[in-house]
Design brief:
rod-shaped, 33 residues, mainly alpha
Length: 33
Amino acid sequence: MIQIEIYAVGSAMCLQRLQSQVSRARAGFIVWS
């Protein structure tokens, strides 16, 4: 059970990091265009 929680938290953090990177790239694209 604990391992599943750790996995969920890790995947959530990875998703958050990915989202922030995507939004940052999107903002950069808007600035460039």
